[in-house]
Design a protein that fits this description.
Elements (H helix, E strand, L loop, with lengths): L3 H9 L8 E4 L7 H15 L4 E5 L15 H15 E2 L5 E6 L4 E7 L8 E6 L2 E6 L1 E4 L2 E4 L2 H8 L1 H4 L2 E11 L14 H12 L3 H8 L2 H23 L6 E6 L2 E6 L6 E4 L12 H4 L4 H7 L5 E4 L3 E6 L4 E8 L2 E14 L6 H6 L11 H4 E14 L8 H20 L1 H7 L3 H20 L1
Helix pairs in contact: 2-3, 6-8
Length: 436
């Protein structure tokens, strides 16, 4: 619902007439040409973000005045326009506001639900022509073939990808086991060298407090994920990733796309109340020690890391044409290896490290629930960029799927019984060697 005070604020703010607001004189209701114009305005709102078409305001933003509408008749005309000239049907709310400065009618248009809306021409009740329109910062324009393709499948284009990160670490040191314990590639390649650079006395202090342990791993995870981007996006953000027999490679599809270089000093810093900040450690200095390289992102994209109100962090990648969010939320902590790891059953009562009798004395694990969310807007100025931005999102998903998704990684490992058989064969081999 709109009230007169809100309306005055809209009228008095020159920036308000934009993608979601349009002013028209009441005379637009009196001609067929005007009615077609109203249909175009409503359709353009529906195909973008939704919006308000406000009748009774002159070009100079002055109110036309009082008693300019025959309210019931004019509301009926608008209902007829929506019913007869627009397809699919739209449920617009029509308001009459008798303000002191003048009377207005506000047509509140929702964002379309599924199919894009069109201005239609009918003959004998059948649609014989459709015209598709959208809004830009400059007003209404026809929808291009490329944009129409996007509008018809927009709901399928915006996607979410949930995944889990599980870190199995050595209980006494918080370090990652360097050998013998299978882990996703991100753990060995990025967590391991970074944690090795943190002084022992700081790790000792962190491990002594339960809350500090999971906060520590939570804080470093967004930075480690960005560190993995340096391998892939080192020449361009528009790349092709190839994987074969456990090996990976990337190549730039184009190095000429508009891009921005991200260097280590441009990364956001941790908040002052973070665990590492408590020890006066700048995460960027640690990343520099482990050879954090630059990487590229689309030009005009903002890259930020935010601490959430709940226990978690977000990487937000925001551009005028898209918004990507990678969220990390603390899920659980436990003794021993994660329940899904096949070596958990094998190692439960096996001697691994000197002085340790079972796996719960050797390892702990922490689990994060994560999600990659995408939201696209069709590029207003350069429609051809849309395919590139969508490819960029799919590339990020591929990296998360193949290097970070713990559950997908575990499914590739042999069944735990095969590890048990292998261990027993080694015991038999050792026994036979000792008998000689």
């Amino acid at each position: 619902m709109t009230n007169c005070e809100e309306l005055k604020n809209i009228v008095n703010n020159p920036d308000e007439e934009n993608l979601k607001i349009e002013f028209k004189n009441s005379h637009i209701l009196k001609t067929n040409k005007g009615k077609k114009k109203i249909a175009k305005e409503i359709v353009s709102f529906a195909n973008k973000y939704g919006g308000k078409l406000i009748l009774g305001i002159n070009k100079d933003r002055s109110f036309e005045g009082k008693n300019i509408f025959n309210v019931d008749i004019d509301k009926g005309k608008i209902v007829g326009i929506i019913r007869d000239r627009i397809s699919p049907n739209l449920n617009c709310e029509i308001e009459f506001l008798p303000c002191i400065e003048g009377d207005v009618i506000v047509i509140n248009t929702p964002k379309r639900k599924d199919m894009p809306n069109a201005v239609v021409k009918k003959s004998d009740g059948k649609i014989i022509n459709r015209g598709y329109y959208t809004r830009t910062s400059h007003g209404i324009r026809d929808v291009s073939d490329k944009e129409l393709q996007y509008l018809f499948k927009e709901e399928k284009i915006n996607f979410s990808y949930p995944f889990k990160i599980v870190i199995n670490y050595i209980k006494d040191s918080l370090r990652i086991p360097p050998l013998g314990l299978e882990s996703p590639s991100c753990i060995k390649q990025y967590y391991l060298p970074l944690i090795e650079k943190i002084p022992n006395e700081i790790l000792e202090s962190i491990k002594s407090e339960f809350d500090d342990k999971f906060r520590f791993f939570m804080e470093i995870t967004p930075y480690i994920l960005l560190m993995s981007f340096t391998f892939y996006f080192k020449y361009s953000w528009l790349i092709e990733v190839k994987r074969h027999n456990g090996q990976r490679s990337s190549r730039a599809i184009s190095t000429n796309v508009p891009k921005k270089r991200i260097q280590i000093n441009e990364l956001p810093t941790l908040p002052n109340d973070s665990i590492l900040s408590k020890f006066s450690i700048d995460i960027r200095e640690i990343l520099d020690e482990v050879s954090f390289r630059e990487f590229f992102i689309p030009i005009n994209m903002d890259l930020n890391i935010f601490k959430k109100k709940t226990v978690g962090y977000e990487i937000i990648m925001e551009h005028e044409d898209f918004k990507f969010i990678i969220s990390f939320n603390f899920d659980m902590w436990g003794l021993g290896l994660d329940q899904l790891h096949p070596r958990r059953a094998t190692y439960l009562n096996q001697y691994l490290y000197e002085g340790k009798e079972n796996i719960n004395d050797q390892f702990e694990h922490i689990q994060f629930d994560c999600k990659f969310n995408t939201e696209f807007k069709f590029p207003e100025n350069n429609p051809e960029l849309f395919d590139n931005f969508y490819h960029y999102a799919k590339t990020i998903k591929d990296i998360l799927l193949n290097e970070w998704d713990y559950q997908k990684y575990i499914k590739k490992l042999p069944h735990h019984l095969l590890y048990s058989i292998d261990l027993k064969l080694k015991d038999i081999s050792n026994y036979l060697q000792n008998k000689k």
